Amino acid sequence: MRTATTKAEVRAAVAEARRAGKRIALVPTMGYLHEGHLSLLDRARAGADWVAMSIFVNPLQFGPTEDLSRYPRDLERDLRLAGGRGTDLVFTPPVEEMYSAGEQKVFVLPDASLEDHLDGASRPGHFRGVLTVVAKLFGIFAPDLAVFGQKDLQQALLIRRMVADLDMPLEIDVAPIVRESDGLAMSSRNVYLSAEERARALALSRAVEACRARFAAGETDGDALRAVVRSALDVPGVEVDYAEVVDPATLDAVKVAAPGSVCAVAARMGRTRLIDNAILGA
Ligand code: AMP
Question: What are the φ and ψ backbone dihedral angles of 35, each rounded to 5 degrees?
Answer without folding.
Answer: -60, -25
